[in-house]
Amino acid sequence: MSRNLEALKLYRNLLKYSKNLQFSDAFFVRRRIREEFEKNLEATEKRAEILIKWGQRSANKIGVGIIRNGEVLSNPRSTFHAPPGEGFRPTETAQHHKQQILRLVQEAIIQAKITNPAKEIDGIAYTKGPGMGAPLQIGAIVARTLCQAWSIPLIPVNHCVGHIEMGRLITGADNPVVLYVSGGNTQVISYSNRKYRIFGETIDIAVGNCLDRFARVLKLDNNPSPGYNIEQLAKNGQKLFDLPYAVKGMDISLSGILSQIEKNAPKLIENGEFSREDLCFSLQETVFAMLIEITERAMAHTGSQELLIVGGVGCNLRLQEMAAAMCSERGAHLFATDERFCIDNGAMIARAGELMLASGLKTEISKSTFTQRYRTDQVNVIWRD
Amino acid sequence: MSSDEEMDEGADCIASGFANSIDLASLKQGAEAKLTECVYLGRNAIVKERFQKSYRHPILDSRLNKARTKAELRGIMKAKDLGIQTPAIFFIDGEKNSIIMERIDGPTAKLWIETKRSEFSAEADNNRFQEIIRGFGVLLGEQIGKLHLGGLVHGDLTTSNILLRNSDENLLVFIDFGLSGQGKVTPEEKGVDLYVLERAIASTHINSEQIMIGVLEGYSKASQKQSLAVGKKLDEIRLRGRKRDMIG
Amino acid sequence: MKNSQLYELQPDPYDVTQRKFVRFCLFNDVKNAAELCQLLREQKIDAALIRSELVLEPFVLLAAANRAVHQSAHNRMSCRSLSAELIYSLSPSRNISDSLVTFGISENSTSIIAATFDDKSGSLMKKLAKKIKAKSVPFENLGKSSNVSLIKKVYQVGNPSFAPESLPDHIISRIVSKDFVS
């Protein structure tokens, strides 16, 4: 049977099932499926018996990943970039996701060399939360559609748990303390008693958010990411600007630092006292020292000798360097991943889904909700001892 | 009393019972400081040294270590003035940011609670265990209330930072004041102090909600007025915690 | 010297390469306090003469002495001599002259503690004892002449809810933390 016929069948099924979707933007899905089909898709090989899931993301990134027994078969993603000096807004981001998701599904399937999804894919995992509502909705809708089309189970995944499980898979860390740092999350997590317990976290804004907002003050480009551009500038910074250092027990507070540097930056740059590079450097040095400190607290508290860093900010080499220094002082091991897996991606949702499905966790379509608030410690981690 | 002859002999000897010794094998590296058990002038003690952290910018590092050593000393002394037990301070090296202080004989609250848990591990004993930890919470809350009323927030309340002298829950000793603050302490700061404790208990002890319930009960004993204002803030802070997960 | 007691101190505790010796002797029934004060003013006495009623026990004295030798080893003394630094180190106050007046010998003192540094042989103390018209008593008697209510006043431990820890611990904490707390 030709590839095109196979694809035709897939989309007919999708169209058929999408009519019955209770919780979906059915019209949108049908229209997009038709458009995508008309563009046609290409693929070659055939493969059987694959344990696969895919998932997609919540904030400004969307991705689809296919994974088989811990092996990533495909993991395409797309990022919505807001104009310089601006953040991304939910509606525009959702719009971007709508435009990208079906292309990404196709790409993932083709890259993974899957010819008969209904037979080869064992389940669909999607991000249940936490995240912005509109983008989460896109993922949930498409996931419901596909699992009905292919008659396979649906698995709702906690985004943070996805990061942790992917990190463990990639690095081989066994039972690490996890530093999860991204645009929306800043958490120090440790596993015990079937829960990923949050040891420390920000009591106000997330670290990625803090960096992004300062990037906006400096009008840095949002491509590839504001945080990346701060990191590059910081490499040439030397002079340390005195910022508040707010560690509160196991937690940190970042809003005071941000307002301090936001307030002073224009003046300091103008009078030549500090350069943009110096300020990026100072912000990173201060904020990262706080992160490493609460991470070390959790490691001291749990007696763990492993540290895993995940999340978009986890790609930052200065943060990794500081973490490595802290770990070597304690005789501990640092596990960090590169940007393919640090940054939100589909495969991580697939990986968590794979583990969950293996221990029998799935959900019915009628219960396949998504939620903006979904704390890491709300998940029952029954797949670990 | 010794005879004159013996006294003369002793006069040229170094007096016994006031020696120094250090047990380097006991070194524990906490997140912030190295702790080593020692004997200082004959007394059981502990050296707490805030050593240089290589991951931190040197200026930031020395600023923090200085500030925390100072906050620790100020916190310990202020707590003493408020009638709260803290370790005695024996010696300070301001340059090395090290403090030699009294070694408290007794378990941490963390260990004590978990020991009680295993003592009362039988299903039938669960109610008794819950009563015990709640009672402990009340005693703890009362002490925290006193600290707060006196304008001192601890900044790092955990069950590892509270010791039970002679395993007596009526003799709570507070340690680790490096993150403490004093002066004009707002209900917000007091609320954060309690929130930090609540979170620490939740992540350290399973099925121990009764501790915090006890803490809040004891806390109100110190001052009803303070308890109302801080309780309101605590609710706000908890809510912030849940709202924080809005963006993924 | 008879009745005097020698102690070893480490200016930087647990750094065994550094040692410092201090010798204490307790004198009761002092008859010539005014004269001794005069000799001190003329710097003819190289020792610390301390009001014994304000000293609770040897540990307090030693902790203060350790503070003094530490400051001296790092050139951070607040006073001109190590002897004066010892007296200042006994005080909870950062006011040097007030501290010396409060804790040093006064013209009507009848019981004093003499302290000499680097006096392993006891010869300094022997020489000093000749100038003091008093009866030296075994050092174990330290504390018998201390005035607890005055001590509580001087160290400001009047708080009725004062933690049930021992008084000396509180005093030492106050002494050693004074540079950091106030």
UniProtKB/TrEMBL annotation, chain A:
<feature type="binding site">
    <location>
        <position position="227"/>
    </location>
    <ligand>
        <name>substrate</name>
    </ligand>
</feature>
<feature type="binding site">
    <location>
        <position position="212"/>
    </location>
    <ligand>
        <name>substrate</name>
    </ligand>
</feature>
<feature type="binding site">
    <location>
        <begin position="180"/>
        <end position="184"/>
    </location>
    <ligand>
        <name>substrate</name>
    </ligand>
</feature>
<dbReference type="GO" id="GO:0002949">
    <property type="term" value="P:tRNA threonylcarbamoyladenosine modification"/>
</dbReference>
<keyword id="KW-0963">Cytoplasm</keyword>
<dbReference type="InterPro" id="IPR034680">
    <property type="entry name" value="Kae1_archaea_euk"/>
</dbReference>
<dbReference type="InterPro" id="IPR043129">
    <property type="entry name" value="ATPase_NBD"/>
</dbReference>
<dbReference type="InterPro" id="IPR000905">
    <property type="entry name" value="Gcp-like_dom"/>
</dbReference>
<feature type="binding site">
    <location>
        <position position="163"/>
    </location>
    <ligand>
        <name>a divalent metal cation</name>
    </ligand>
</feature>
<dbReference type="GO" id="GO:0005737">
    <property type="term" value="C:cytoplasm"/>
</dbReference>
<keyword id="KW-0808">Transferase</keyword>
<dbReference type="GO" id="GO:0061711">
    <property type="term" value="F:tRNA N(6)-L-threonylcarbamoyladenine synthase activity"/>
</dbReference>
<keyword id="KW-0819">tRNA processing</keyword>
<protein>
    <recommendedName>
        <fullName>N(6)-L-threonylcarbamoyladenine synthase</fullName>
        <ecNumber>2.3.1.234</ecNumber>
    </recommendedName>
</protein>
<dbReference type="InterPro" id="IPR017861">
    <property type="entry name" value="KAE1/TsaD"/>
</dbReference>
Automatic annotation (TrEMBL), chain B:
<keyword id="KW-0808">Transferase</keyword>
<dbReference type="InterPro" id="IPR000719">
    <property type="entry name" value="Prot_kinase_dom"/>
</dbReference>
<keyword id="KW-0067">ATP-binding</keyword>
<protein>
    <recommendedName>
        <fullName>non-specific serine/threonine protein kinase</fullName>
        <ecNumber>2.7.11.1</ecNumber>
    </recommendedName>
</protein>
<dbReference type="GO" id="GO:0005524">
    <property type="term" value="F:ATP binding"/>
</dbReference>
<dbReference type="GO" id="GO:0005829">
    <property type="term" value="C:cytosol"/>
</dbReference>
<comment type="similarity">
    <text>Belongs to the protein kinase superfamily. BUD32 family.</text>
</comment>
<dbReference type="Pfam" id="PF06293">
    <property type="entry name" value="Kdo"/>
</dbReference>
<dbReference type="GO" id="GO:0004674">
    <property type="term" value="F:protein serine/threonine kinase activity"/>
</dbReference>
<dbReference type="GO" id="GO:0008033">
    <property type="term" value="P:tRNA processing"/>
</dbReference>
<feature type="domain" description="Protein kinase">
    <location>
        <begin position="8"/>
        <end position="248"/>
    </location>
</feature>
<dbReference type="GO" id="GO:0005634">
    <property type="term" value="C:nucleus"/>
</dbReference>
<dbReference type="InterPro" id="IPR022495">
    <property type="entry name" value="Bud32"/>
</dbReference>
<dbReference type="GO" id="GO:0070525">
    <property type="term" value="P:tRNA threonylcarbamoyladenosine metabolic process"/>
</dbReference>
<dbReference type="GO" id="GO:0000408">
    <property type="term" value="C:EKC/KEOPS complex"/>
</dbReference>
UniProtKB/TrEMBL annotation, chain C:
<dbReference type="Pfam" id="PF08617">
    <property type="entry name" value="CGI-121"/>
</dbReference>
<dbReference type="InterPro" id="IPR036504">
    <property type="entry name" value="CGI121/TPRKB_sf"/>
</dbReference>
<comment type="similarity">
    <text>Belongs to the CGI121/TPRKB family.</text>
</comment>
<keyword id="KW-0539">Nucleus</keyword>
<protein>
    <recommendedName>
        <fullName>TP53RK-binding protein</fullName>
    </recommendedName>
</protein>
<dbReference type="InterPro" id="IPR013926">
    <property type="entry name" value="CGI121/TPRKB"/>
</dbReference>
<dbReference type="GO" id="GO:0000408">
    <property type="term" value="C:EKC/KEOPS complex"/>
</dbReference>
<keyword id="KW-0819">tRNA processing</keyword>
<dbReference type="GO" id="GO:0002949">
    <property type="term" value="P:tRNA threonylcarbamoyladenosine modification"/>
</dbReference>
<dbReference type="GO" id="GO:0005634">
    <property type="term" value="C:nucleus"/>
</dbReference>
<dbReference type="GO" id="GO:0005829">
    <property type="term" value="C:cytosol"/>
</dbReference>
